[in-house]
Amino acid sequence: MIPFKYLGFYDVPRCIAVHHGGNLLLLESVFDEKIDDYSDNYSVYVLPDSVEDLLQSASWEFLGSMGANPIGQIRVASVKFDASKRLTLDPSCLDALLG
After folding, report:
1. Which of 13, 33, 37, 45 is surrounded by the most beta carbons within 10 Å?
2. CA-closest candidate to residue 98, choices 64, 70, 61
3. Residue pLDDT, tens place only, 65-79
4. pTM of the full predicted structure?
5. Do 14 and 8 touch, CB atoms closer than 8 A?
6. Which domain holds residue 33?
7. Contact 80, 89 (CB under 8 A)
8. Any bridge partners for residue 18, and if so which?
9. How would you label 63-96 residue by residue, b for 16+ Cβ within 10 Å and e otherwise?
10. Which of 71, 76, 13 shows the shortest CA–CA distance to 44?
11. CA angle (35, 82, 47) in 5-degree steps
């Protein structure tokens, strides 16, 4: 289990920043107006280390939409969180994307 930071929570964290495999990753599950619910998937982005300071503020949820293309998606249900769903996660779900 590794620590993460999150912004937005609805049943689970919906925007997560986590260090794994030497990368700073953003996992983002956005609200879909058409289905009136959150996506069942996280889009996963590799962020430049230069945005690390933005993670200290509450304004970093835009990072996934900075024009970056996701490296892939993972099912929200495949992410194993600690009991509170707010502190740590099992990073094994990300390993296939990082190859």
Report:
1. 13
2. 70
3. 565 778 999 999 999
4. 0.88
5. yes
6. 2-98
7. yes
8. 25
9. bbeeeeebeebbebeebebeeeeeebbebebbee
10. 71
11. 65
Q: How many domains, the chain?
A: 1
Q: Which neighbouring-strand residues pair with 54?
A: none
The C-alpha torsion from 72 through 76 and 81 to 84, rounded to 10°, is 140
37 or 60, greater pLDDT = 37
Q: Taking residues 48-69, what's their average pLDDT? A: 67
In one letter, which amino acid is 58?
A
Averaged confidence pLDDT in the chain? 88
Which 3 state secondary structure label does DSSP give 62? helix
Residue 31 C-beta-side C-alpha neighbours within 13 Å = 7
